[in-house]
Amino acid sequence: MSLLPVSEALEQLLSAAASDAPTGAEQVPLQQALGRILASPVQAAHDVPPWDNSAMDGYAFNASDIALAQSRGLAISQRITAGMAPVPLASGTCARIFTGAPIPPGADTVEMQENVEETDGIARLLQPVQPLSNVRPRGQDISRGTVLFDAGQVLRPQDLGVIASVGIAALEVRRPLRVAVLSTGDELVEPGHALGNGQIFNSNRFTLIGALQRLGQSVLDAGILRDDPEQTRVRLQELSQQADVILTSGGVSVGEADCLGQVLRESGHVELWKLAIKPGKPFTLGRFGDIPVLGLPGNPAASLVTFLLLVKPYLLRRLGCTQTAPLSVELAAGFERAKAGGRDEYLRARIENGRVVPTGNQSSGVLSSASQASGLLLIPAGGTVTRGQLVSFLPFEGLLG
Q1: Helix or strand holding residue 357 (H, E)
Q2: Which residues, including other chains, have CB under 8 Å from residue 241's CB and lie 6 or more apart?
Q3: What is the Cα 316 distance to its own chain's centre?
Q4: In angstroms, how far is the first alpha carbon of the chain from the final one?
Q5: How many Cβ atoms are within 10 Å of 6's Cβ, its own excluded?
C-alpha cells in the first residue's frame, strides 16, 4: 500500500470535517468569548468613534478663522473634556479641548497646545495650521453596518476589544466538540502506579488532553483500553454514544495486537491510513457508526505531531473555522542534512542565534525533544538541508493556539 502524502490526507480530513454536522451554537458574554469560534457574523451597529473628536490636547476652532487666530487670536468660549457634550461653538471663538473630547458643532480644526499662546482668555496661533487638522472623524475606525468578523473567526483579545467598541455585550459562538480521548495497549500504566515488567507510563493521553483543553474543547477522558478486540468493540460503541469525535493513540496498525485497527476494519470503516509523514506514518481516519475515529500513532512524538498537523485542523473545520493552516515562517537553518528522506519530516526544533536547529533525539518515541523545542521544522520528502538555507518553521504557539 502506497503512503498518502500529508497534503492529500489533510484535504480528505478537512472534507470529512465539513461534511459532518457542525456543533450547535450558544450565546456567551463577551468576556467569556476569548478563543471561541463565531457561529454568526458580527456587524457594527454604531460608528467608531461615534462623533468627531480631538486627536490631541489643544484648541478647536473653525478653519475660516485661521487668519484671525494667527493675528489677534480667538476668545476661548468653552472648555471640553472627554465625556462632555459640547455646545455649538460661537462664531469667531475657539474651545479649549482635550484628547478624545467631542468636536463642538461649528469647529472643524484642532491645533496642539504647544503651538498656541493663551493670554487672558485669548488663544493665538503661533504657526500656520492646515484646515481640518487633528480631528478624528466619526466612523474613522468603524462605520455602522460594517461586518467586523465573519462566522468561523477564532476570537483573539484584540477582536474582543473591537467588538466591545461597537457596544456588543454577547456573541453567538460554536459549542465545543465533545472529544473522547482513549489510549490503547497492555503495556500502559497510569502515572502514580508502579511499573511492571515491560510496562511504560501512559503519556499520550495527557499530551492530547492538554492540547484539546488549549483549544477549548470538551474532553471525555476514556482511560486505557487493553489489547482485546471485544473490549475494544464495546468501548467504541459506548463512546460513540457520548462523543462527537473519538481520539485514540496506538493500536491502529495491522499487527496482531493492534486491536483498534482490526475492529475499525471489521465493525467500522477506515477512510485513510498510512501517511508519508515522519513521525506519524500509521495515522488513521475511520468511523465507528456515525462517529469519526482519529487514530494517532502510539509513539509519543508521532502522536503530538499528527495531532498538531492533522487533528487540530480537522477539529477547527468541524467548528466552522475557515482558517486552519498553522503559522509557518521561513528561517535560516543552523544545521545540515545531506541525506534525503522519502517522507515529509517534521523535526522538533528551536531557534538559536536567529537560526533554527533540531532539538535532542528525533526518534518518534522520544517526547522530551518536543519540550526542548519551540516548534516544528519541515524537511519535505526528497529534500536536503544546507547550513543557511531557508526552511519552514512552525512555532508551537501557532500550532497549539
Answers
A1: strand 355-358
A2: none
A3: 10
A4: 35
A5: 22
* Residue listed under C-alpha cell 518518534: 364
Rounded to whole angstroms, the Cα distance separating 332 from 344 reads 18
For the cut 90, the answer to whether the pLDDT of residue 206 exceeds it is yes
pLDDT of residue 260: 85
Strands 218-225 and 178-184, how do they pair? parallel
Count of helix runs (H) and strand runs (E) in the chain = 10, 26
Instruction: Specify the pLDDT at position 87.
Output: 98
How far is Cα 9 from Cα 91, in angstroms, rounded to an integer? 71
Residue found under cell 487668519: 67
CB proximity list for 198: less than 8 A, separation 6 or greater:
187
368-388 per-position pLDDT tens digit? 999 999 999 999 999 999 999
Calpha distance 51→46 (Å, rounded):
10
- List, in order, residues 6 or more apart from 234 with CB less than 8 Å away: none
Residue from 93, 34, 71, 17 nearest 245 by CA: 17
Q: Which residues pair with 4 in a beta bridge?
A: 275
**What is the tens place of the pLDDT at every residue in 236-274?**
999 999 999 999 998 776 555 578 888 888 888 999 889
Cell 515529509, located at residue: 344
Helices (DSSP H) in 55-166: which residue ranges? 66-71, 157-165
Q: What percent of the chain has pLDDT over 90?
A: 88
pTM metric for this prediction: 0.88
Rg (CA), the chain: 30
**Contact (CB, 8 A) for 92 and 61:** no
Question: For 61-81, how does the pLDDT look when each residue is reduced to its tens digit (9 = 90+)?
Answer: 999 999 999 999 999 999 999
Q: How far apart are CA 321 and CA 151, in angstroms?
A: 8
Residue showing cell 472643524: 108
Interacting residues of 8 by C-beta distance below 8 A, sequence separation 6+ = none
Residue 204 pairs in a beta bridge with: none
Q: Say if CB 367 and CB 348 are below 8 A apart.
A: no
